[in-house]
Amino acid sequence: MMSTGALRPVSESADRTPHLSQDVAFEMLSCRRRRYVLHYLKQTDGVADLRELVAQIAAWENGVPTTEVTYEQRTRVYTALRQSHLPKLDDSDIISFDADRGTVVLTDAASELEVYLDVVPHDDIPWSKYYLGLGVLCTGFVVGMWVGLLPFSLIPPLAGTTLVTVLFTASALVHVRHDSRMQLGANGMPPNETGGEDA
């Protein structure tokens, strides 16, 4: 569906309650270019000009400033966005795409995608596995102190409790900082991702 109204978020003009199925959410996020669209829209308060959007995505894909994007690079991205990705995002009510005006607007439904945006870099492990490992390590440490195994029995209980607390607190702080950098819409380039199709 193509929007023909004024340039404003759908939340100001629609009475429906957005709802995305898990299948639709994963399909929309399965493509790198669609993730780039969402990343850019989140950086621009949910509203973008198609030409600027195309230039920025082409720049990200080729690792160059927007001023150095070639005509061929821009055309390749424009064709894919105009003919495929933007209509798909629009049909899913994640954006409102007005082809005539050349405008793209993020909708309320886009906020439902946040739960699926756990971007894990190539050389990282999921945080769930990290915390599981840390929990097993700390449990073994506490059990060793409790049953009196050396060298754990030499550690005062207060020092052991402090160490476990510091480990989990430090991990949580690093996790928060990591998530702020890996989130779609954060300043700068899109997060270092595990991949996904471009076409």
Automatic annotation (TrEMBL):
The keyword Membrane applies. Keywords: Membrane, Transmembrane, Transmembrane helix. The chain crosses the membrane at residues 130-149, 155-174. Residues 26-104 form the DUF7344 domain. This is DUF7344 domain-containing protein. It comes from Natronorubrum sulfidifaciens JCM 14089.
